[in-house]
Fold this protein.
Amino acid sequence: MENFLYKKGDYIVIPRGTTHRILTNNSFFLIIESYSEVNQPERHLLGPNALYDPSIVETPEPEPIIDNREWEIKIKRLNEITSVFYPYNPIDVIGWKGTLTPWKFNIIDFCPPTCHRAHLPPSVYTTFLAKNFVVCSFVPRPLETEEGAMKVPFYHSNIDFDEVIFYHDGNFFSRDGINSGMITFHPQGIHHGPHPKAIEASKNKKDTNEVAVMLDARNPLFFTEIAESIEWKEYYLSWK
């Protein structure tokens, strides 16, 4: 799988075992790798067309690549990489058979459930569901309108999950000083919520203008050396 054109904001789901190559051109990606099956959430009373219409899901059209140079395939198993070499380009498929296929849709096509009376928990924005984590989509939506209703995320402490949010685009009114391309990390047990400035600013707002991706992981997450090298050390002070 190689001929899947990417545009800003695309979710691309590549099933495990699918041979693929990603070609980039000054692009940035949020990559989430799962060792368990990734499913779509149940819609239940919302109906099968809720969250996003199945008709917008795209799958690639196979275009076999004829190239008789030596090609390296890297296979990841048990967190170890093994290289296998082919005397031709192995992405030579001419058609799909069965239900295993890469697919994509754009985050802007995600339709979030809303309520004019109360602020809904982020779990209603679940886009992908795996054994030990969920992926949620935050997109522009109307805010609560009933008098006294809270318009910003309530203060909370994650008991079961580590929370990571990637701020993709827009104006993130619940966080002060956050810009596109930033990532926040709130581990289990760390109390957090909207910034003081966000609470005041939300009183006159009617809708949001933000696009973000949230990953809630049941297993603890740990910083890499690269992440530590770019950490904003004073982030916790932003609540003052």
In short: Residues 1 and 126 are 27 Å apart (CA to CA). The first strand starts at residue 10 and ends at 13.
